[in-house]
Fold this sequence. Notes:
Blueprint: E1 43-47, E2 55-59, E3 62-65, E4 70-73, E5 85-88, H1 97-100, E6 106-112, E7 119-120, E8 125-129, H2 137-155, E9 162-166, H3 170-176, H4 180-183, E10 189-190, E11 198-200, E12 203-205, H5 226-237, E13 253-257, H6 270-280, E14 283-287, H7 295-303, E15 307-311, E16 327-332, H8 337-350, E17 354-359, H9 367-371, H10 376-379, H11 381-385, H12 389-397, H13 406-436, H14 441-450, E18 456-459, E19 467-470, E20 474-477, E21 482-485, H15 489-492, E22 501-504, H16 513-517, E23 522-528, E24 535-536, E25 541-545, H17 553-571, E26 578-582, H18 586-599, E27 605-606, E28 614-616, E29 619-621, H19 643-654, E30 671-675, H20 688-698, E31 701-705, H21 713-721, E32 725-729, E33 745-750, H22 755-768, E34 772-777, H23 784-789, H24 794-797, H25 799-803, H26 807-815, H27 824-838
Parallel strand pairs: 4-6, 7-11, 8-9, 8-12, 9-10, 13-14, 13-15, 15-16, 16-17, 21-23, 24-28, 25-26, 25-29, 26-27, 30-31, 30-32, 32-33, 33-34
Antiparallel strand pairs: 1-2, 2-12, 3-4, 3-11, 5-6, 18-19, 19-29, 20-21, 20-28, 22-23
Helix pairs in contact: 6-13, 18-19, 20-27
Amino acid sequence: xxxxxxxxxxxxxxxxxxxxxxxxxxxxxxxxxxxxxxxxxxxxxxxxxxxxxxxxxxxxxxxxxxxxxxxxxxxxxxxxxxxxxxxxxxxxxxxxxxxxxxxxxxxxxxxxxxxxxxxxxxxxxxxxxxxxxxxxxxxxxxxxxxxxxxxxxxxxxxxxxxxxxxxxxxxxxxxxxxxxxxxxxxxxxxxxxxxxxxxxxxxxxxxxxxxxxxxxxxxxxxxxxxxxxxxxxxxxxxxxxxxxxxxxxxxxxxxxxxxxxxxxxxxxxxxxxxxxxxxxxxxxxxxxxxxxxxxxxxxxxxxxxxxxxxxxxxxxxxxxxxxxxxxxxxxxxxxxxxxxxxxxxxxxxxxxxxxxxxxxxxxxxxxxxxxxxxxxxxxxxxxxxxxxxxxxxxxxxxxxxxxxxxxxxxxxxxxxxxxxxxxxxxxxxxxxxxxxxxxxxxxxxxxxxxxxxxxxxxxxxxxxxxxxxxxxxxxxxxxxxxxxxxxxxxxxxxxxxxxxxxxxxxxxxxxxxxxxxxxxxxxxxxxxxxxxxxxxxxxxxxxxxxxxxxxxxxxxxxxxxxxxxxxxxxxxxxxxxxxxxxxxxxxxxxxxxxxxxxxxxxxxxxxxxxxxxxxxxxxxxxxxxxxxxxxxxxxxxxxxxxxxxxxxxxxxxxxxxxxxxxxxxxxxxxxxxxxxxxxxxxxxxxxxxxxxxxxxxxxxxxxxxxxxxxxxxxxxxxxxxxxxxxxxxxxxxxxxxxxxxxxxxxxxxxxxxxxxxxxxxxxxxxxxxxxxxxxxxxxxxxxxxxxxxxxxxxxxxxxxxxxxxxxxxxxxxxxxxxxxxxxxxxxxxxxxxxxxxxx
Length: 839
């Protein structure tokens, strides 16, 4: 059973005695409480069982008396119990008595207050301190932002909060202003300078930590991880203005975190280290941060680099800004083993960095000169540091410098270079794609920026889509699927400005005439509609169709969800939108409802059943597509989006929904999801049973998965996301590989005539999602077409000749008219390769 301390606030049982927590109380008890929060009997729940932190929750409408740092109840429900009082110092270093003595104590009480509310907030308060070791970059994150992320995602996973901060300093706010809105969109309250009362629905005081530089997904309701924390940092820092970093050369960039002066852990032969790194192939950038370093600049430098190295110290916390897959070299001085392992090795693992440790030998430490190589401080640092923090701090951290053995260090540099080179190639492929695409995000963004004054902006230059943007307040006349301008001077004075009208079929397959004929046409006009607004929306409308090939799982994503994601991140990168859907079907909405909620917080407007007028600040019609199963990273200055970001959105959506648990993993065996096809659908594996046995013999735990149009996607996500690989013949069902985690194995079996489709769709997808991709291209004798037409027929010997310009032949012969019988001996080689990657 989950610990109460890991439950969201909304699921916590009511506790009238904060010292007695009962795990037997129903976790759903809060569902039966009165809908009026003012009638809830006040209670306090505290968790004081942890070594590093305490937190308490006053479950009642509450009022803050800032002078006394006291939160009192304002519930209208009389309590039969005596008032409860709890005191918390909201900083997660409970065992550090000296540090905690400087943290302001916060009081929570169920005692009723009749004081009036000066300022009323509609979100719970989360109270924490930035005292303690704040000002040290490591502690700012280890004791501050990482616990704040954990606490919000543990206690308020689906809720906004108001941050109330004590021991406040203006420099701290100035330094971290870019990321604070990612934790809460509400203004921050500086508890120390308040002179008026504040009222909240409830209050939590204290921060939860999982240990030094650790985020444990198993302790989080939605299994948030350091990757999610990094995504939060990226969202914050990519929006702020920055000086451009050094131009990336054709070499992987290594950021060398430098130390100088009498601070300890200085690399005394840094110039030699830089030269060695350059000789191995790195472009080296020296980085020596201070308390006043502008983090937007730092983020852009490090996030655009491919490796970081430095001696153990607070500045290595900047490795949080690296992209997953980058190389991280930590130089570990004598006596620093435990700290290095506990702090930055944990961080590197959580961030999916390629981590390497270079442990300093005694002869490389300056302590040898001071104490001699036979001194116990040199021979056995652990005997000194295990019980004596003062000695660790004063001797091994503050008084030790290092002079690296360049010959020995080169081997570490060589490994780091190989890993960094791979990281650069991944980043480089994305950058190249964004520059060469005909439908790059920057072109759409630039078009909008260049035509800001125009009432209607359209882009009809692409082969597969059109889009138009009515850049005025608009009103929707649902009877005619037309968006009119509200109060437009163009419509009011037609003699000087002619009416503008544009029509769009909002589905990204405009080259297919028949398909597009099934898509509703949407009209945008600067004409005025003489009707009142009956429903107002605060966000722009984005109109698209779910007609066309909707119902085929591949097309649902390729022509729908993925272009929708691209369009939102192109046209509305910093805005929420209201989705207005043409050609709506209830089954589609039910199937993708969970995912749609991750794309917008507003209700969906079904264009087909509206009887009222709707008004919006502006309206975009149409979806932008980058091509088959492709998301080209956004080279808009602050909004670089990729398939990995799209997958993060899927994870955010599908980890929230209830799902049937998949079969348990078999100990020591990677799970392979086998995408099965049956019946007269084409591309069936006729010897499927033998293939499964071969996969099991190779070491896989095989789970059969045969999805239908009505498969519950929360169940599918949970099964596939918890697996290590997927195998199947080219077909729409392989789109479920979107649910695999990066690093998983995807085996695509490619029938005759399917090579182009296989490359364009799922090989592209696999590369973008960082899968280990394995392709098994069948030979003529493995195809059922050989039996039907003979091995020497041109349908078998030259499929490209048949297919060229003839989609009907591709569909009827090579997709629907072909099954496969795999050569077991040949296939075993591929499955063994796949197993080694999945393991």
